[in-house]
Fold:
Amino acid sequence: MLDRKLWKKRLYTILSLDSHPGHIAAGFAVGVFISFTPFIGLHTPMAIAVAFLFRLNKITCITGAWINTPITVVPILGLSYKLGRFLRGRPVNELPLLGSVVEWHNIEKYAKSIILGTSILGFVAAVIAYFVCYYLVVRFRARDAAQAELDKEMEEVGEELE
Structure:
């Protein structure tokens, strides 16, 4: 998950997809929303299922689902729990992160607040991700088209291509 070359390659793959920028960005945004859900370990299968169900780009949806890494999932869950408690009008306190809380049958009493909080944070992150991804795809294509035009001119003139 933290391999820089892999992320760079995946980003290049996404930016060079032959699809409408809005379609690419929508898949990525849905994946980002999924990455904020508390269903740890099910993000990739959920992203694949949603991508098939809504005919989204599978690559971008899966990549978006990998945004929330194991390093960031604990702070996101804690923040989501606090936000959920606040929105439900309950006193805001810390999510007890004991070893037993991680097990699903022990997290039931915290679920409403966590799901509400992750939904809000996931939605905000997905909206931001949509516009960032759309912008990057459009910029990449413009730069790529300009580079292709420059290469074509250099071939016609006979200059050396680097």
Notes: The first helix runs from residue 4 to 15. The chain has one domain: 4-137. The chain has a mean pLDDT of 81.
